[in-house]
Amino acid sequence: MSNQERLLVEPAGSVGCCEPLAREPLSAAQAVELAKVFKAMGDPVRLRLLSLIASHDGGEACVCDLTGVFDLTGPTISHHLKVLREAGLIAGERRGTWVYYRVLPDALRQVSAVVSLDEIRT
Amino acid sequence: MSNQERLLVEPAGSVGCCEPLAREPLSAAQAVELAKVFKAMGDPVRLRLLSLIASHDGGEACVCDLTGVFDLTGPTISHHLKVLREAGLIAGERRGTWVYYRVLPDALRQVSAVVSLDEIRT
Q1: Is the CB of A42 less than 8 angstroms away from the CB of B47?
Q2: What is the dihedral sign for C-alpha A89, A107, B23, B36?
Q3: Going from the N-terminus, what domains does chain B have, and what CATH number goes with each?
Q4: What gap in Å lies between CA B84 and CA A60, rounded to an integer?
């Protein structure tokens, strides 16, 4: 399978890597995948959405719990949720009228592994 | 020390927060500061630069060690290093002809704390 095909068939946000930054240099391919997760988190609204979802009772939040927190339109919130979803950070499930979001731990686990400080020489 | 030199060696971007995402929602101000760090890491070249610096012998790398790795111009590499420096992720020190960079663990520590999975309910 070519890298191109692999990128197409793997689920969005499946990084499948990485060693701590300080252990060995990231490959170009690993860096491309991982940068998507960091980029998705590199926005204050998306970070707050992520923390609102992660810290909500039961570990999931309805869109209706999220929109009132921000002075932003529904479509703007939906756009940010889509970016988080495409980065593999959250998943949504429609139940009745609303979509409920929950944090997917795998992408956060990748971030956590990469920034592990065990081998950072200070 | 000139302002120019001071900018080169002093870390910028002190986040000074945060609780794990799943413990309590980030405040707007915390999210703004933290997003700067994630945004700086949300680029494949910058992630690779960070890992090249962190994993280099002695925990520091000369600009001369970094430029040959990428098919990018010196000014482009310098721009990416500046973004990492302004986010408080690296610090540079001029010694003779070259600037040597080292990873600052505080910003990575903030990222690590925020993505801590201990309280993520899956």
Answers
A1: no
A2: negative
A3: 3-119 (1.10.10.10)
A4: 33
pLDDT given at position B119: 58
Q: Does A42 touch chain B (CB under 8 A)?
A: yes
| Residue B87 contacts A where some CB pair is shorter than 8 Å | no
B/e letters for A68-77, b = 16+ CB within 10 Å, e = fewer, are: eeeeeeeeeb
B38–A47 C-beta distance less than 8 A: yes
The answer to whether the CB of A18 falls within 8 A of the CB of B41 is: no
Judged by a CB distance cut-off of 8 A, whether residue B120 touches chain A is yes
Is B13 a residue whose pLDDT tops 50?
Answer: no
The answer to whether the CB of B51 falls within 8 A of the CB of B65 is no
Instruction: Tell me the HSE value of B120 on the side-chain side, using a 13 A CA sphere.
Output: 20
How many Cβ contacts (< 8 angstroms) between chains A and B? Answer: 146
Would the CB atoms of B26 and A47 count as touching at under 8 Å? Answer: yes
Could you give the residue ranges of the DSSP H alpha helices within B10-122?
28-41, 44-55, 63-66, 74-86, 105-114
- Phi and psi at residue A44, in whole multiples of 5°? -60, -40
For the stretch A1-28, pLDDT in tens is: 444 433 333 344 444 667 888 888 899 9
Contact B25 A105 (CB under 8 A): no
ipTM above 0.90, yes or no: no
